Structure formats: C-alpha cells, structure tokens
User: Fold this.
Amino acid sequence: MSRVLIAIILITCLISAVIWYEKSGSEDEPLASAQLSENLKKYSKSSFNPEIRVHLTRRRSISLKIQSAYEIRSIKSQKLLSSGKKLSQTAIKHSRNKLWIGETKYESKGIEISVSKSPAIWVNDHCYHGKIRLYSKSNGRVEIVNVVPMRNYIASVTDSEMPGNFPFEARAAQAIIARTYALYQMEQASKNSSFDLYSSTRSQKYLGYQYRDKRGRLLAGESPSSRKISEQTAGMVCTHRGDLFCTYYSAVCGGKSDEGKTVFKDAAPPLKSVVCEWCRDARYFQWNASMDRVTFNRALLKFLRKKGMKLRVIQSIKSGASLDYFTVSDGKKSIKIKTRELKPYLLSAHLLSPKYFVQAGSQKVHFKGFGHGHCVGFCQWGSRGLAKAGKCTEAILQFYYPGSQLVNLTGNTEIASRK
Ligand SMILES: [Zn+2]
Assistant:
C-alpha cells in the first residue's frame, strides 16, 4: 500500500472520529430535540400504558378471593380451564406437582385469572387491578404475579412510596421516576422471566388497589390524588441521551446522595452524588443506634473473613472525618472498612442507611447515621423540601438526576397543572 493511501485512510478515520464525537457529545450534555426524538422512536407510543408484571409473593399456601365474574386460562395455550361468578376465600396450593384452587386441580404449570370487572382479585390481604397469574414452582411453592396496566400500577406506587400530604410537584416527580424505573425493568427482564419487578422495596413498593393491615383495617393503596397524578404524568419518563435509565431513589439521602456507580452496576451517568439540604425535616435525616460490642465484633470478623482479611483481635474501632469508612486495628495492623460494605452484615433494623460514624465502647458500639435507604438518586424527602421552596417537577428531577431529560412518550409536552 502506498504511503499516500495510508495517509488518506488515517485522515478519513480521524475526520470520522471527530464527526462522531461532535455528534455524540459528552455524556452530561442533553441531546438536541431532533436527535432526542430520533432516539426515542424505539419506544412506541403505546409503551406509556403497557401491562406490567409484578411479582407479589411466592409461598406454599396463599388465599384467593374474587369479587367478580372470572375466567381461568392456561397462560401458555390461553385455553379456558374454568370460570365462575365469584369465588369466596379459597386456598391456592401446590401439591403433587399441580396447582390447586380449593378442590380444583389444574394441570397447567401456569394459569391466569381474569375478571369482568377490575379491581376484584384479592391475594392474601391485598386487592389488585388487572389479572393474576399463578405458577407452580419447585419445592412446593406457588408464585403469584399481578399483570396490571401501568396507569393503575403508578397510581398505587405513588401512594405506596410517598405520603399523600407531600406537595404535588414532589408526588408528580415520584410518579415519573416510578414509571421510568418500571419501564426500565421491563426492558431488562429476561425473556424467560415470569415477572418484571417485585412489589416490595426490593424494586418499588406497590400495595395494590386496597389492603387490610395487621389489625384488619381496610386501607387504600391508591387515592383520587394518586390516580390523577398517574393520568397527568402519563407517558412521562426520565431519559439520558434518549435512553431510559434506572431511576434509583431512596427515602432520605441525609445531606448528600451517593455516586450511583459506586453502589449499582447499572447506574447511569445522571446518578451523580448531589449535595441535598432539602431533606433536613425528615425524621431520619440523622439517627442514632447502638449494638452490643460482642455482636458487632462477630459481624466484623465475619465480614473480614469473607473479604480474605485477617485481624487477630479487634482492639480499636475508629471513624475519621468521612462517613464512608472507618478503621479497625488489632494494635499492629489497621484495616479501612467501607460502611456501605459492612452494612449487610449488621442488623438492618438498627442501621437505616450505609452512612454512619462508629464509636466503640467496651460494652456497646454507637452509631451516628444519616439518611434512610441506599442514598442513591432521587431523595423523596428532599423532593418535598424542593417543592415547598417552589421548584417545579422538572427542576426537582434535574436536581437529583443532572444531565437527564424529561420526555413524554405520548408526545404531550406539558405536565398538567395540579388542578
Ligand atoms: Zn436529601
């Protein structure tokens, strides 16, 4: 190959790289509207109200009640297996490798219950919109999945995750990040999975339409206000350069959210560490806890063993200026321990967040902690503070997810007013 030809190829590559860089920009820059619309084409307009599959429970015995006419079909073949006008409280079981609803045996591995009028299906103490799927699982358990339209799901998550007396702007932001989180999980769910996310804080809290608490009181899982917010924000999601991202959030960040990448593998660039003074009113902005020294030492040694580190004895435990780690020493050797890494080894009932100072006495270990939850992304109590200070929903989302863009998959551009 001649030198001239090589030079031409190199120059062409260089020009292409410059064009590509200019086109793609830095990861913090928002996309111009033309390119954003282009990137969003992959999300169809119907995706603002898809059916989402929520894992409710997996147990040996579950109670079921249906307050409307219903049909039971095989999930795989959609063949009608049975139907009825109503079903009084009945036990669902998995026995001899088959699903049983009361005395009726079902040969299918998975069955689906649909109703003529929703919400009508009670699973244990919760009533749900949409359909219910039952799967027979190994070791004699039944897995229950609620297949529910996104609008109903968001109405319930908004109330399940955030108090009804928080300002409209904060609750609208909560609805938008809950929808983004759910759509992202749907995108990520494997083809073989029977569900997209959990109904607990393992994903996001979803109480359903209504439920009975431990004292038997009937409580609402959604409200006229949360239903309205779900409708008013329909189709609205947070994106980063045209892609949905996992909108992690927690109750109280305790003054500063943590960098997402240090906690979650799939943390997108907008999950930055943000200084937040807006959650100071929260009960758990700062908290204190204590634990006996023997229990703490045991947890610490277990943690060190797991990490392949050894200390003969634990002589001293000291926090420095940082909330992120503390130091343990046997008198000769010192080891830095990340508070976040140790947290799962300690009693979670005591430690509300991974951000704490440790002070060890001879009998007790005392913790002074900040925040509630994992402290990454949107801070729920902080959004309340920002809304009270007059910030709009979009500004609140920008504050906690810098570099993200709020878009509407339905094509509407405005968040409806609170009225
Ligand atoms: Zn905060």
Summary: The radius of gyration is 26 Å. The first strand starts at residue 51 and ends at 59.
